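Appendix B, example 12.
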Amino acid sequence: MRNELSHTAAACAMAAACLVASTGAQTPAPSGQGAAATPGDSAIVVEKPTYIAIPLEITVNRPVAEVWKRIGKYCDISEWLQIAAGCKIISGNDGEVGAVRSVATEVLVAKTEYSYTYTQPVRAGRPYNLYHGTLEARALTPTTTKLLYTLVYDNSMLPDDAAREKDRAARAATFTRALANMKVLAEGGTLPPPPARGGGAPPAPAAPGGAR
């Protein structure tokens, strides 16, 4: 009996030693030792991005559902941004996440009942700035709505602070005018002709009934 126990113990010890050796052989070598590490696994394209947010808002004297019905469709951008070429859905289903509109081939990446967020694709030969825009309608009272337009992007590729401020101001002016146009449309007014390219400040949108 004692011999049988000794043989069994020896067999168990040998099996354990083999298991440890096998496990050790399968453990991957640390990066830089043995197997070569894959380059670029954690690298990002822009090493030191400088993200900027531009939050804009305006109050509309209409209920939120009415406001969103008038200006919240994905291709309504061609009306309130006054894009002469118009807008059409070129991929996906209108109003659904994943839809692509012809305006800058922007992709709808998120939406709620009264908001949506879009982004622009990476383009060859152009630095990617992670540009995202969000349009939201938020009820203030049963008869008033706050429209919010928020831009987020990286401006680190611009040469200096002066260039970054000029870029921020231009984008803010464009979408401040867009919000003013949305307000006019949602309240039943008519938009004036769009400002000339490179011209001065855009004319004030006409209020309902033609009053300024």
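The domain at 51-73+117-193 is CATH 3.30.530.20 (Alpha-D-Glucose-1,6-Bisphosphate; Chain A, domain 4). The chain has a mean pLDDT of 83.
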